[in-house]
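Field log, afternoon session.

UNIT: design team B
ACTIVITY: writing a sequence onto a fixed backbone
BACKBONE:
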């Protein structure tokens, strides 16, 4: 039985979507959760839900695109919890423009890159010095199907997620000897505000994406507990032998609990040279 009682967990993008669900889930497991988001209203609501359920959380309004803000947020969490962040969950992301790449305004590219990629780099850079000094830490970064395969009409979003996955693979090797593990989670189809954005985009999203989004809206998508089970495993000491991986909630990841991990298992797929 995994225990997170009193463990400091910092979640970016905690105000909505999967970030909020994971924040509430870890708080329910006894973790002390630092909630990071830009929206005060969303932070307040998430904090309220956690406290009403008997959990413990700290609200920190910060922008992941700003390293100084993230650094200050991590320090505030350390002081508040009287210990350094043990688990970082990078869930802050935006979907950006939907439609053919040639129709997208360049300014939006930068917003997307800043949030989805630079935001992850900022968060990792802010927590790593404490983790390396303590020789203990877990980092979980949310990726998506765009990191696995092409996703027409979502080219920039997919590019940021593929970039994040390769960053995680590379960083894992740098911090391996410091007993810090970093992995990506592909959380599966989940009904969030991004689902509504796809539905609102209509033909610009493409018929496959539209049908998929409609099905996700109707069913709710991947059960939250499946996402929590994988996140808790990767945040626990049971996964100390796993780092630099991109694991989907629908993968047979429970086999990772035992035995050795093959070098090419759950790595970012790439075309092999002949």
């Amino acid at each position: 039985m995994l225990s997170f009682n009193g463990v400091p967990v910092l979640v970016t993008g905690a105000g909505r979507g999967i970030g909020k669900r994971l924040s509430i889930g870890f708080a329910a497991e006894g973790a002390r959760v630092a909630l990071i988001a830009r929206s005060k209203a969303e932070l307040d609501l998430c904090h309220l839900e956690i406290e009403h359920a008997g959990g413990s959380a700290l609200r920190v309004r910060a922008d992941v695109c700003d390293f100084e803000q993230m650094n200050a947020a991590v320090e505030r969490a350390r002081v508040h919890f009287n210990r350094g962040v043990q688990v970082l969950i990078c869930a802050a992301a935006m979907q950006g423009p939907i439609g053919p790449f040639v129709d997208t305004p360049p300014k939006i590219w930068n917003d997307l890159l800043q949030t989805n990629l630079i935001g992850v780099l900022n968060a990792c850079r802010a927590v790593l010095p404490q983790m390396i000094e303590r020789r203990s830490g877990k980092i979980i970064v949310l990726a998506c199907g765009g990191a696995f395969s092409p996703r027409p009409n979502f080219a920039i979003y997919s590019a940021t997620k593929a970039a994040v996955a390769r960053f995680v693979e590379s960083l894992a090797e740098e911090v391996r000897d410091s007993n810090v593990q970093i992995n990506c989670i592909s959380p599966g189809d989940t009904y969030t505000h991004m689902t509504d954005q796809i539905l609102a985009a209509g033909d610009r999203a493409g018929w496959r994406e539209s049908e998929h989004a409609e099905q996700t809206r109707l069913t709710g998508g991947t059960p939250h507990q499946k996402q929590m089970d994988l996140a808790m495993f990767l945040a626990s000491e049971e996964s100390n032998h796993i780092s630099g991986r991109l694991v989907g909630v629908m993968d047979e990841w429970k086999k990772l609990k035992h035995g050795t991990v093959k070098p090419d298992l759950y790595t970012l797929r790439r075309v092999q040279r002949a």
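LOG NOTE: Helices lie at 17-28, 40-52, 67-81, 106-134, 155-175, 193-201, 207-219, 224-235.
NEXT ACTIVITY: expression trials, pending approval
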